[in-house]
Hints:
The complex is a heterodimer of chains A (about 575) and B (about 200). Chain A is of the alpha/beta class and about 575 residues long. Chain A has 20 helices and 23 strands. Chain A folds into four domains: about 1-215, Thiamin diphosphate (ThDP)-binding fold, Pyr/PP domains (Rossmann fold, 3-Layer(aba) Sandwich); about 220-315, Rossmann fold, CATH 3.40.50; about 345-505, Rossmann fold (3-Layer(aba) Sandwich), CATH 3.40.50; about 525-575, Alpha-Beta Plaits. In chain A, about 35% of the residues lie in helices and about 15% in strands. In chain A, the strands form six sheets. In chain A, strands 3-2-4-5-7-6-12 form a seven-stranded mixed beta sheet, with helices on both faces. In chain A, strands 9-11-10-13-14 form a five-stranded mixed beta sheet, with helices on both faces. The two termini of chain A are about 55 Å apart. In chain A, about 55% of the residues are buried. Chain B is globular and about 45 Å long. Chain B has about 200 residues and is α/β, with parallel strands linked by helices. Chain B has one domain: 3-Layer(aba) Sandwich (Pyruvate-ferredoxin Oxidoreductase, domain 3). The chains are: A alpha/beta (about 575), B alpha/beta (about 200). At the A-B interface, strand 1, helix 8, strand 8, helix 11 and helix 14 of A face helix 1, strand 2, helix 2, strand 5 and helix 3 of B. Strand 8 (about 165-170) of chain A pairs antiparallel with strand 2 (about 35) of chain B.
Amino acid sequence: MKTLMLGNQAVARGLYEAGCGFVSSYPGTPSTEITEEAAIFEEIYAEWAPNEKVAMESAFGASLFGVRSFCGMKHVGLNVAADPLFTISYTGVNAGMVIAVADDPGMHSSQNEQDSRHYAIAAKMPMLEPADSGEALKFTKKAFEISEQFDTAVLLRMCTRIAHSQSVVETGERTSSEVKEYEKNGAKYIMMPGNAIKRHPVVEERTRLLIGFAEETPLNRVDAGKDTSVGFITSGTAYQYVKEAFGDTHPVLKLGMVNPLPVRKIIDFSKAVDKVIVVEELDGIIENHCRNIGVDVTGKEIFPNFGEFSNNYVAEKLGLESGKFRKVGAVIPARPPVMCAGCPHRGLFYVLKKNRLTVLGDIGCYTLGAVPPLAAVDSTICMGASVSGLHGFNKAGGDSRRTVAVIGDSTFMHSGVTGLINIAYNESSSTVIILDNSITGMTGHQQNPTTGFNLKGDPCTKIDLEALCRSIGINRVRVVDPYNLAECDAAIKEETAVDEPSVIISRRPCALLKYVKHPGPVISDSNKCRSCKACMQIGCPAISMKEGKAVIDNTLCTGCGVCIQMCRFDAIKSR
Amino acid sequence: MTTQNIMIVGVGGQGTLLASKLLGRILLEHGFDVKVSEVHGMSQRGGSVVTYVRFGDKVFSPVVDRGEADYIISFELLEAARWLEYLRPDGLMISNSQKINPMPVITGVAEYPDDLEGKISGTGARLICYDALSLAETAGTVKAVNLVLLGTLSAFFDFEESEWLDVIGKSVPPKFIEVNKKAFLLGRKITNGKVLSAGN
C-alpha cells in the first residue's frame, strides 16, 4: 500500500517489517518518533531507557539472546553510547541489531553539529543513509540483513530533513523472524584482552568484506545523465538538492551505504566523467575518501563543512541561478522559541535571576531560561553537565553560596544522578535544583523513570526523586512549587547558604500536559496598572504592553499567577 | 507536471501540522508524488514555524527555498512578511490578519511593524489577507484557523469540495469533524478563487 510517512515513521515500519522484536531508546530530536511509532506495533517490545548507553546495551542484550533489536538516538546521544558501540563492533551480534543516529545539520534543535559518520569509521561499523522515507523503510530492513550476514551491528544515519519529512512509501508485510538460539561463546562475547586481541583482526577482515559488498550493492547506485562534463557523488539530503538543481542532466553516484565506502565503484564513476564534485553536508568524509583512493574531486572548496544546505544554496554554489523574490522593506523582528505561558520553569528562573546567581544549565526546555528577559543561565554543555560542572566550579574555588545547577527530571535520570553522586561523595557544598515537570518536555512529552508511566502509556514503577537523592547521601532535599515565588526565593537562599550539599526539587507538571487543569486567564485592571513593567520581567508571551498598560492575552494565559506576584499595585488578579 | 510548492507558516502551537497533513493526503489521493517537511523540537515552542508541501510527478528536495513557493498560507501577519521572500514573484500569499507579538516586541527591544498588509501588497505580491480568527470563532473554535485558511487555499485547486470534506472526515477525530468542515467552508467562500487585493 502507498502512503505518506515521516522518515522516522518509515524506519519504525521497517523495524516492524524486518521482524524486529526489541526497541530501547532515549528521546532526542530529530530521532524521537522512530521509537514512538515502533511502540504502536503490538509485535514490538519498545521502551524508553534512562539514557542512550543503557538503550544500546539493552538492545545488544536482546540481540545476544536472539531477537532482532534496535536503538535510536540523536547525534549527541551516540556520544553517550559510544562506549558500548566500540566494543559491540568487536563482539558482533547474534540476531540482527540496528542503531539509528539522527544528525541535525543547521542545529534546528541541538547544541552542536557533529557528523555521526565519524563514529561509523572509528567504530568500524557499516552505516546506511536513506534519502527519503521510502529508502528509510527499505534501508532499515536491509540493515538487519547486513547485520546478520556480516555479524555486526549496523548504523542507520538519519538527518533532520529526512527524519522529519513525509514522503511516499510502499509498505509490506512483517517477516516472521525466528528467535535465534543463544550459545555461550566467550571468545566472541567476553571482551577481555586475550579475546579482544583475536576479535580485532576479525573486525578488519569484516571491513574488507564490507568494502566488497559496497562495490556491488544497489544501495550505492549511479543515476545516469547525458552531460558527463561533471558527475556528482552525494548521499542523503544533499542528493535531493543535487537532483532538484540538475534533474537527470548529469550522472550522480548516490551512496546509500556511507561506511565503508566503495573504491572501484568510485574510480569507475570518476573515469566516466570529466570532473567529479562531491556534495555532502557537514564534514568532507566522502571527499577525503576519494582523495585517499587517488580520485581527484572538488568538494569543500565549494561547500562549507557547517550549516544546512538548501535548494538554492546548492544550485548557486554549482553555478545555477536561483529564482527572484520579493521582500518587505520593514525590519521583521525575530520570533525565537520561548517558554510557554504557564511554564513552571518561569517562576524559578525569575527567582534565580533576581538573586543574581551563577546558573549552570542543562539540556531541555529550560535552556530557554537563557533567553531575555530572564537570561538566567551561564552555561549549557550536554546532558548532566550542570550538576558535574557545578561540583568542579565550587571545588575550584567558586562561591557555592552564589552558584547553582538546574536540570530537568528526565535529564537528571539520564546523567545528572552520577554528577550528584560525585557531589555527595567528594563533598562539595553544591545546590542542585531539579526542575521536575513530570515529563520529557522539549522532545514532545515522552515518559521517563520519574513519571510513573512507560512508553506504551501503562503505569509502572515511579522513581522517587527525594528518596533517590537522600539515598545517595544528600541530607538536605526539599520540594518547592515554582508558581510560588516567595517559597522558591526562601528555599534557594537557605540551601545555598548552608555548608553542605543540597537538592531543591521544583515540582509542577508541564503546562501543556493534557491532564493539567488550569484556573483560566488572569485579569488585568488598566486603572490600577502604573506601567511599571514589573510583570514584563518574567518574559511571559501572554503579557504585553498596550498603550502603556499591561494586557493579558486570554488565548494564551493559563492563570499560573506568577505575574500576580510581580505586581505591587494589585493590577493583576485571578479570575 | 513541474513541482508545485506550498508553504504553511505560523507560530508554534497554531496547528500548522494538521493543514499540511490534509494537503498531503488529498494530493496523494490524486496520484501526485508528495513531500511534506516539518520542523519539530526546540523551534516549536512559540517560535516561527514552517511546513513545506511539494507535489508533482517526481519530487526531490523536501524543502522549499526563496522565490520558489506557489502558495504560502500564513497563520499570522508578521510571519507572512517574514516568509514573503520564499514566494515566487507571481505566487499567492494567503494570510490571517491576526498579530501575535514575538518576545523581542514584548520585551520592547523591537517593534511590530505597522501596516504590514500594505507593505506586503506594496511589494507587488498577490495577497489575500483577512481575519481568519473570527471566522474560526464563528465555526465554533479559535483553534480552527488552520481549516479556515486551508479552505481559502482550496479554492485555487481543481479538486471537488466533496473530496476536501472527505479528507477532513478521514483525518480528524470524530467529535471535531463538523467544526473543522464548517471552518473550511467559511474559508473557502472568502474569494471563490479570486484574489481580492492584487498588487501591481
